[in-house]
Design goal:
Oligomer: single chain
Radius of gyration: 18 Å
Strand order of the largest sheet: 6-7-8-3-9-10
CATH topology of the largest domain: Rossmann fold
Number of strands: 10
Strand content: 25-35%
Number of helices: 9
Distance between the termini: 37 Å
Helix content: 25-40%
CATH superfamily of the largest domain: P-loop containing nucleotide triphosphate hydrolases
Shape: globular
Amino acid sequence: MENVLVLENVKKAFGALKVTDDVSLTVPRGQALGIIGPNGAGKSTLFNLITGNILPDAGRVVLMGQDVTRAPAMKRVRMGVGRSFQIPQPFGGMTVFENLLTAAAFGRGLPEGQVSEDCADILLRIGLLPRANQLAGSLSLLDRKRLELGRAMATAPHLLLLDEIAGGLTEAECHALTDTIRALHGEGITIIWIEHVLHALNAVVERLLVLDFGRVIGLGAPDAIMASKEVREIYLGIEA
């Protein structure tokens, strides 16, 4: 099976603080991987290393078989890395559809006329088609999260990175968004998802990665990982 992402002994430190400590990881095409860990564990830093927003001090980042360790973020977007952020920041004065058009045109390097049909299809798939002509700044939190997901999808990603996209939602809203993400994964999209809402992750992912102080302390099937004594003590605060 082809690997979409390979990390080899990736390290990143800010001064004396090791935020990514010798992380190695392989993500096959079509898999959904969840990442959990306490605040400050290095989860978002790992995403920044994958996307090229920051560069590692050591190790290799390989996307679709190509070494991109020193490649800039835009090149990685054009290669097929899409990302959502914890706090949605849409272009509030533009419509929902215009937000997707902008992401698609710049993310793919294509004229708007070539991506408009794809954007309409994405809006249908994420449940925002009825809001297509609504200003993004007037959306509810759930719909802003959907838009954040849609903008990442508009870049036509081979690898979709979701950073706490379920945070702040009610239980019903979380279930609705999880259903959308599960459907996208069912289409074959490779997903890496950082999340604190465990029931959302468990509904989608096949593997869980646990980080603590930048180190990988667990990687495997969700049930086995959550049954681990070390994971329960570090992540859940349960003395096992």
